Amino acid sequence: MEISENGFIFSDKKELLDIEAIHHYLSTESYWAKNIPFDIVKRSIEHSLCFGIYKGHEQVGFARWITDKATFAWLSDVYIKESYRGLGLSKKLMSFMIFHPDLQGLRRYQLATLDAHGLYEQFGFSVIENPERLMGIVIPDIYSRSAE
C-alpha cells in the first residue's frame, strides 16, 4: 500500500525503509528506546507491520505495529523527524495505518505514549479501562545497561 500527498509518500513497503535512519532516531532522539542496538531495531522491523513517510529519498517518519493480524495490535516506535513536525504528517500516518487491511477486525489495539494522547484520541484510543487487569514486565534502561 502506498499513497502520495503534498510531496510525501506514505508506504507499508519494508524495502523502502531506511533502517539506519530509523535506528539513529530511536537510539539518539526517542525517549523510549535510547541506545537501542541496531540489530534489535532490524529484528523488530522484520517481525512487525511497518510504515514509513518519505520526502524524496529521505525517511521523515516511521511507525510499526506488533500484531498477529487477527486479534491484537500494539502501535510502537512512532516518530516524525523534528524538522517535519507541525505539517499534519502524524495524523495522515495514523489515517493511513488505521485502515490498513491487516489491521481490520482486531479485538484490541493498544499503545503507550508520554505526550501524544490528543493525537491518538482522534483515532479512537482512550485510557485503558480496568488497568488493574493489565500486567507486564518492564526493564527500564535495558539498552543503556547493555551498552555498558
Structure description:
- The chain is an alpha+beta fold and 148 residues long.
- Helices cover 27% and strands 26% of the residues.
- The protein has a single domain (2-147), classed as 3-Layer(aba) Sandwich (Aminopeptidase), CATH 3.40.630.
- A six-stranded mixed beta sheet has the order 1-2-3-4-5-6, with helices on both faces.
- Helix 1 packs across helix 2.
- The chain is globular, with a radius of gyration of 15 Å.
- The model has no long low-confidence stretch (mean pLDDT 93).
- It is an enzyme of class 2 (transferase).
The H-and-E topology, N to C, reads as: EEHHEEEHEHH
Shape by Cα distribution: globular
Whole-number tally of structural domains: 1
Number of strands: 6
Q: DSSP helix count? A: 5
Organism: Pedobacter vanadiisoli
Protein name: GNAT family N-acetyltransferase
Pfam family, one: Acetyltransf_7
EC number: 2.3.-.-
List the helices and strands and how they pair.
Blueprint: E1 2-5, E2 8-11, H1 19-28, H2 38-46, E3 49-55, E4 58-67, E5 72-80, H3 89-98, E6 108-111, H4 117-121, H5 142-147
Parallel strand pairs: 5-6
Antiparallel strand pairs: 1-2, 2-3, 3-4, 4-5
